[in-house]
Amino acid sequence: MFLGKSERELLLETFKILDVDNKGFISKEDITAVIEAMPTTPKIPGGGVEELIGAAEPGKPGQITLDEFEKLLDKCVPAHKRRP
Question: Is the pTM of this model over 0.70?
């Protein structure tokens, strides 16, 4: 996926927010902590976080790297719906 500079910066900023403890990857615990810290965010039903992580990196143990996060967002947000 090719991202413009502003898209890449936004992706990195979002990744850093989700990587709560700065390990260099996003874990189930990171996602859960962010969701719980945002009271207006709908809760993900049991198993949903694992499904999200599995979609990003099938067959690996519950960690999403920056590259995998970028690929996941590429699947979820088609290029024509991204900001210019």
Answer: no
Task: Give me the half-sphere count of Cα atoms (radius 13 Å) on the Cβ side of residue 19.
Answer: 16
The closest of 30, 84, 77 to 53, measured between CA atoms, is 30
Of the candidate CATH numbers 1.20.950.20, 3.40.50.300, 1.10.238.10, 3.40.30.10, the domain formed by 5-81 belongs to 1.10.238.10
pLDDT along the chain (84 residues), means of 10: 68 89 88 78 68 68 83 69 56
Q: How many helices (H) and strands (E) does the chain have?
A: 4, 2
Question: Are 56 and 64 contacting, i.e. CB atoms less than 8 angstroms apart?
Answer: yes
Which tokens is 54 given?
Answer: 């599995």
Q: Domains of the chain: which residue ranges?
A: 5-81
Q: What pLDDT does 38 receive?
A: 76
Indicate the DSSP class of residue 46: T
